[in-house]
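Notebook, student rotation project (T.W.).
Task set for the rotation: take a protein with a known small-molecule partner, predict the structure of the complex, and write up what can be learned from the model alone. Partner molecule chosen: manganese (II) ion. Sequence and SMILES entered below by T.W., checked by me.
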Amino acid sequence: MNHSYNPRSLPLNELPLEKKTDQTIRFIHTSDIHLGSHQYEKSLRSDDFIFALKEVLQISQNISADFILLGGDIFNSLDILPGKMKVIIEILKEFQKATKGKVPIITIEGNHDIRRFSRGVKFRHRDQSWLKVCAKLGLLILLDADFQAPSEHVFQPYDFEQVKGGKIQIKNVVIYGSRYLGEKPISALSIIRKGIKKEGGIYNILLQHFGVEGQMKNVPGVPLEILKPLHHRVDYLALGHFHKQFILDNWIYNPGSAEAVSSMDFKYNRGIFFVEISGLETFEKKVQILKLNNRRYLKKFICNPFQFKKKENFYRYIIKRLKMAPEFVRITKITSCLKSPFLFLTIRGVKPFLYYDIKHREFEKFLVQNLPIVGAKVYQNYDSKIITLENYL
Ligand SMILES: [Mn+2]
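Predicted structure of the complex:
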């Protein structure tokens, strides 16, 4: 299934600087930035997501992109701290200024962008999102389709005055997009297909927020067979939703999350796509995978030598052992290091006393307080049958 997957990635300093011809279109395709993630737990970590956005914009500027595609889940939820939102708006404004408004950012709403998240309070979705606010401010183009309309009107050209529309043409590329339609939007996909016009000399991109079945274990997605009829009208299917990267049959592209949103994400192949389309009729496509400068992570394994009588002693022993690790000795010397890592810790050896059950949350918090790390995930592997990090990597 993954036969067309090309895992080569390009170091950012080797990006092309040559001038492109008038017939070449360049764009960046990224997704799932999850701005606002982890904001309450650790401010430093929440800035990682903003940094990822900034980096995407910087790269787009460096390669003289014609546009940027964001495949949804740009925000983690409707909850975001005002201070963070202010920074995001400033970054988008600065980008617009630096590129003289000539590099539109085109996006759609993912499931997270419209997620109700006010804890404990029943909140009815009122058709609001931060993406809508950004679109109203003229900072990005938010596409959506009208599924009630007859097929020729499902995708209306984007109207900048009304801040509304389902498609936009940039040079000889037409980008179609709609909001999140559920995990398996089978019937909506047939409406979408009929709404897309296939014209000679036009390269069609469809921007969607869903996954493909089989690409992530136990995560529902659209069967590949259902997508195949779309290929007659869509040259490049730009996806978001699955945080793991995949490329299928040389036309379905999912970049994966821009920064690791959960601890699982650290293990996935992720990045952004740098796409070049050249030739007015032939549309030769070149796709390169770029890796963003994401938060680093460290894997450590500690063998517990004996049954400590007190939990505190066990905790202290683990910290002492970790502090001796060369990586931490180095990091401690560079204080307030922005790139302090995320720690994956597996503890093996002698099982601690049953009466002090190690609570992962509490232990992880303790590790963060006592080490130069930004977050931690603990695995206990006293019994070899337990699945640990090693089984995944
Ligand atoms: Mn997501």
